[in-house]
Amino acid sequence: MTQQLFHLSPSDFLFPPCHFALTDPDGLLAIGGCLSTQRLRKAYQLGIFPWFNEREPIMWWAPSERGILELEDFHVGRTLKKAKNKLNPTVTVNTAFEQVIKQCREQRLHNEGTWINKNMVQAYCQGHREGFVHSVEVWADGKLVGGLYGIMVSGVFCGESMFHTVPNASKLAMWALVNWLKKHNAHFIDCQLDNPYLSSMGAKVIPRAEFLTRLKEASDYKSADDMWQPQELRAIYD
């Protein structure tokens, strides 16, 4: 299969098929375009996501292997159970989206650097206002101590980033998300790229073709009208 790098037009939202993505760097499919919410929706529906650093052009990716988390495979270890009992957290969805994405940005900005640049923050905040980008928040003693955000595409939650200010709070957010998705009969979580942190929670890698097939199979999913309304998730760890 021929690989080539595509340059996207700023005036339409078309993407090339994922099999044209480069092998080096793995998964780079296209550059350019914009971060409009129309383009973001289309990209995630096709299994494509943006990922680029400050002062780089917008880059769109469809890696040859995809990290996913099967909802039934989420690992709840003894340490995580102890963290839950110690914090006795309150968990909410979509009540503090801007705080969550900014915390995700700040945590990485001061450590390894971040792809969550200001344009990305603006784009995903707009997506949140339009109702397709969501956050899960973990609170302890009234303070936001962990969370994550991502995009719900049909029956798949595409995770973008997470943060914590106390140990295991981001894993508590993921645990809550998994249980919330189970309750609503969703399919799986798209983790995009594999890493040891996600693997410790049960994530695995599947080939791109299998991922795209499963994404298409999930396209008929319809979420409940109140699934992503701002709310507290009571008894979410039961």
Automatic annotation (TrEMBL):
Its EC number is 2.3.2.6. One of its GO terms (molecular function) is leucyl-tRNA--protein transferase activity. One of its GO terms (cellular component) is cytoplasm. The keyword Transferase applies. Gene3D superfamilies: Leucyl/phenylalanyl-tRNA-protein transferase, C-terminal domain, Leucyl/phenylalanyl-tRNA-protein transferase, N-terminal domain. It catalyses: L-phenylalanyl-tRNA(Phe) + an N-terminal L-alpha-aminoacyl-[protein] = an N-terminal L-phenylalanyl-L-alpha-aminoacyl-[protein] + tRNA(Phe); N-terminal L-arginyl-[protein] + L-leucyl-tRNA(Leu) = N-terminal L-leucyl-L-arginyl-[protein] + tRNA(Leu) + H(+); N-terminal L-lysyl-[protein] + L-leucyl-tRNA(Leu) = N-terminal L-leucyl-L-lysyl-[protein] + tRNA(Leu) + H(+). Signal peptide: none annotated. Keywords: Acyltransferase, Cytoplasm, Transferase. GO terms for biological process: protein catabolic process. It is found in: Cytoplasm. Belongs to the L/F-transferase family. Functions in the N-end rule pathway of protein degradation where it conjugates Leu, Phe and, less efficiently, Met from aminoacyl-tRNAs to the N-termini of proteins containing an N-terminal arginine or lysine. This is Leucyl/phenylalanyl-tRNA--protein transferase. It comes from Pseudoalteromonas luteoviolacea.
